[in-house]
Amino acid sequence: MKKNIILLIVFIILITGCVQNSLYYWDGYSNSLYKYKKDPNDNTIQAHKESILKIIEKSNYYGKKIPPGVYCEYGYYLLQENNSAEAKKYFELEKELYPESEKFVNLLLKEIPIKKEKE
Amino acid sequence: MKKITLLILTTLLLMLSGCATFNSKSDTFPLMYEQKPLTILTLPPINLSTAPEAKEYFMTTLSEAVSETGYYFLPLEVTTPFLKAEGLYDTEIITDEVLPQFKDYFNADAVLITKILEWDKSYYVIGGNVTVSLDFALKSTATGKDLWNYKGKIVYSTTGDSGNGLLIALLETAVKTAAQDYVPIAKGINQKVFQTVPFGKYHPRNNKDQADQVKIE
User: Fold this and answer.
1) SS3 B111
2) In the beta sheet, which residues pair with residue B153?
3) Helices and strands (H, E) in chain B, number of each type
4) In chain B, what are the domains?
5) DSSP conformational letter for B50
6) Could B176 and A65 be called an inter-chain contact, meaning their C-beta atoms sit closer than 8 Å?
7) Cβ neighbours, 10 Å, residue B145
8) How high is the ipTM of this complex?
9) Considering only CA atoms, which of A30, A68, A59 is closest in space to residue B69?
10) What is the Cα–Cα distance from B63 to A105, expressed in whole angstroms?
């Protein structure tokens, strides 16, 4: 009987060892992005933006760090909509959370005045 | 009672062989531990398979897979237009001389080059198999050397009696809509591939996984 229990414990450890705990909360990120890439339109981009907002909201709720690039990606979509002020806010959040993104985010921030000239 | 012991032992053996491993991470990928890359830029996947959609399946699932290994993964949706603008979109023609540019523009310590060699066309019949052949490499932007790579063929059972199938079944339950049948498959494949990557800075096991065993096909 004891042997069985030991075997069971080893078994459980193996099972849990094979399943990784996730570092981040992703909501339906890959799915909504896939739908958007497959069929880019107002509905699919809105759905993808919503899933990004959910990542931010739920990560904060669960006390998890926002995944890499998520703030930046959201900011980029806002920039596409010419919402420069909001876009800037999200770019800055990315830089703050992941300082290694600074170089690239600064490139994006440089895009903002160019976008405005085009309007 | 003996029968139960036997059953558990058999399952245990099956599981052990399913997780069969051959080499430690530090022996297999020593450069990852030496160079300690942090920021990873993904170049657009090279799709040599007969399934044109395969590129999208992977592009949309890579962020999750790579970020979960503890690296800073530059957002693909934002970097890709930049690569296009700089004429660096064609991954096929990227040479070692170009690599320092990825450091200059993106502060990328390494680029992820993904080749999809095969994505079996006879796929998605419920209860069938998906066969995928991949050649993935993480290349240092400083030295041009491969820090990590994965070459192999993965046969994914969608029925759920193998260890892999179990994983897929678990992932599938997490997917709300049936329309994205391939996204969980790509996710499952990525998980199998990227579990061989030494953990990065943001992973709690960063620099603690040298002895982890990886199976390289």
Assistant:
1) strand
2) B133
3) 8, 8
4) 25-197 (3.40.50.10610)
5) S
6) no
7) 13
8) 0.80
9) A68
10) 17
Q: Which residues in chain A touch residue B75, judged by CB atoms under 8 angstroms apart?
A: 68-70, 72-73, 76
Contact with chain A for residue B202, Cβ under 8 A: yes
Output the six-digit token pair for B136. Answer: 């993935």
What B102-106 contacts at long range (C-beta under 8 Å, 24+ apart), as own/partner pairs, is B102/B41, B102/B141, B103/B141, B103/B142, B105/A103, B105/A104, B105/A107, B106/A103, B106/A104, B106/B39, B106/B41, B106/B74, B106/B79, B106/B82
CA dihedral A19, A20, A26, A29 (to 10 degrees): -60
Per-residue pLDDT of chain B (217 residues; tens, 9 = 90+): 567 777 777 666 656 555 555 789 999 999 999 999 999 999 988 999 888 888 888 889 999 999 999 999 999 999 999 898 888 888 888 888 899 999 999 999 999 999 999 887 554 444 567 788 999 999 999 999 999 999 988 887 665 444 455 555 545 543 433 334 678 788 888 888 999 999 999 999 999 999 999 876 5
Question: Model's pTM, two decimal places?
Answer: 0.79
**Taking a C-beta distance cutoff of 8 angstroms, is the pair B55, B106 a contact?**
no
Q: Which two tokens stand for residue B187?
A: 């996710």
Q: Does A38 contact B at CB distance below 8 Å?
A: yes
**Encoded tokens for A111:** 């895009």
